[in-house]
Amino acid sequence: MPNKTHLLRQLENISGKDNVLSSPEVLKPYSHDESATDEFNTMPVAVVKPESTEQVAEIVRLCAEEGVPITPRGAGTGLAGGCIPVEEGIVLSLERLNRRIHIDPENMSVTADAGISLKQLYQVVEEGDLFFPPHPGDESAMLGGIVAANAGGARAVKYGTVKHFVRGLKVVTADGKILSLGGNLMKSSTGYHLMDLMIGSEGTLGIITEVTLSLLPKPGTIMTMVAPFKTVDEAISSVLPVLNLKIIPFAVEFIEHSTIRCVERLLNKNWPVKSGTASLLIILDGPDEDRVLETAEKIGKELENHGALDILIAEQREKQAEILELRSMIYEALRPGVGELYDVCVPRSEIGGHVQFIHELEERIGVPLPTIGHAADGNLHSHAMKYRLEDGEMKEPIKDFAEKNSLLEREIFADVFKRGGVISGEHGIGIIKKNHLIANLGKDAVDMMKAIKQALDPNGILNPGKLF
Questions:
Q1: Element containing residue 103 per DSSP (H, E)
Q2: For residues 465 and 468, what is the distance between their CA atoms, to the nearest angstrom?
Q3: 467 within some domain
Q4: Alpha helices (runs of H) in 279-342, residue ranges in sequence order
Q5: H-helix or E-strand spanning residue 290
Q6: Which helix (H) or strand (E) holds 438?
Q7: Distance between CA atoms of 59 and 48, rounded to whole angstroms?
Q8: Most CB contacts within 10 A, which of 96, 203, 393, 421?
Q9: Quick one: CA torsion of 241, 245, 246, 249, rounded to 10 degrees?
């Protein structure tokens, strides 16, 4: 590490004095993300905010020469500690790369700076009567971050994850070169797909500064259904029969009502159904209202055949938005009491078995594990709670939580591996899950990842301490 004053001066020469932050009170927000843990938080030497790809490249070249670790950062909305600095170095924030967003209607694509937020993207795309299907959740997330994490979300069952929509990337390598990968193309069989290597690499192989994404025509109609069930098992066991109708919904969300009670208290709003202990939230899209309503009624009958207590169909946009707001705020409502958030993904035929195992574990170990998830693609989120939950309130703390959570982690992941699943469906590995990567993928696979990392970043300056 070079002299701090000298390093700061050189960074200021690149990005401007106002865009190099070094005072402790300003650095603190950049020492963590939205994950439940504060175990790994480390203060960087500085936060640098470049405004262009060229400035990013210049900063990387400087850090490569000086041996300074770089932690790339978007909006900091990640849930796996992927943008937490773990070695003394700089945080390279892409928040000022937010000027360019261009819709190309003829090629059905959008090209945007990495610091453009999802909210900005959705607004511009909708104005063009087009559609970007992936919706990872927090709309303040930035495009560079969602590509680096290969983010997913509820709509993956029909449309896939972010990687399915990436056409091109501009990337700064560990030695400061600028690469244009992919392009505004529908397909390419021209050499190694280096672009795909960057997607999901969590900033460890290169820094994404610009993205080109595929778009689709905007759906003519979207409808939302809510079906409550008496038991969690009934709700989960209804998912496969719906999918066996040869209908691919826009989204199928599984929600335990214990999570919704917390949101109701936080927002002072009510979930649209009161009966039961769990709900399925099903969203449908299609070309016109009549056909989507016909599909909704068909699904509704199937759900009733499998124990649904009621079927609510929300056709009005305002009612749909209210339901989705309640769903989207679950983590925010639970977060003050969350000790660990799981992001496992299993084959969807194994969802019922895994949820049943979670409830057995909850009873045996004595830690609340309220669970939600994207039921149709097998991605489930169990929240290990540090407090007992009762009617949406957090009560007395769980005794010996840290010890119990270590046991939970081992047993949950062991069950996931047994079912052919993975430890992360959409949040990424970051720093929080890296100790389990070999157990999940095997030593040979992780060694190959390390070899790729060594080839592309031999000095290990890009997002050190992440993945493995």
A1: strand 101-104
A2: 7
A3: no
A4: 289-305, 317-328, 330-334
A5: helix 289-305
A6: helix 437-441
A7: 9
A8: 203
A9: -70
